[in-house]
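Could you help me review a protein record that somebody else here produced? My question to you is simply how this chain folds and whether the tokens agree. Thanks in advance; the entry in question is below:
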Amino acid sequence: METQDNLKEMVRQKYSEIALQDKEANQSSCCGSGCCSTEVYNIMSDDYSRMEGYNPDSDLGLGCGLPTQFAKIKKGNTVVDLGSGAGNDCFIARAETGEDGRVIGIDFTPAMIEKARANAEKLGYYNVEFRQGDIEHMPLTDNTADVIVSNCVLNLVPNKDGVFKEIFRTLKPNGHFSISDIVLEGILPKPIKEAAEMYAGCVAGAIQKEVYLELIAANGFKNISVQKDKPIVIPGDILSKYLSQQEIESYKKSGAMITSITVYAEKPAAEKSCCGPECCN
């Protein structure tokens, strides 16, 4: 069995390769993983191109939702993007938070950080910064962010519970997150679940939707809601690389689903400390 470190290194290497590909190459595969389909469209992502702040050079076609669209970002906010890639969601977030706000992108792939920094410099966005780091151990102090966003990244992390703990730590009291991610409903066939290429392609690292939402609640978040929920349909020519025809038919009849969800949740307000005899009898 692969260790967590081995899985993370595999993802790092794969996304280092993706950083050097153009968007067209990524869009003809499942999250850029290289499993090319004759149906040339991105299986996971939504269209960012009409959103304010969109920059084509920073869009690698790797997402599975539009978390910034649902993130309720306000002017002057500090926004953190987990798994920031070439900077796409960061630049969208900057359009919302404005020049008085601050946007921090975190990614553990050096090639992505380099690409994102070059994009930010080219655009003249000096209130957007990119930090290399592991989102299980974020390079941020406590209570930094008003808003945290992430797009199709947590499913690639083995220790999702650790990431939600870090999100809770780094959000300000009353802060919130909006995260798009891939989850499962029902049991996927073992060949898909275990295929390394599909893991880097956003599927085999996903967990059950119910478990995902329970992890959020268990880490102290409140007002949890699913802002968007859409099924992900994998074309038959991709499935045929991993399953026999009989297995494909069985899979389709099973009701098991791969789903893209965008989830919102809030960190509770800080508890008031006792400040005098009226509250300490």
About this structure: The chain has a mean pLDDT of 83. Residues 19 and 160 are 24 Å apart (CA to CA). Strands lie at 78-82, 102-107, 128-132, 145-151, 171-185, 222-232, 257-266. The chain has one domain: 4-266.
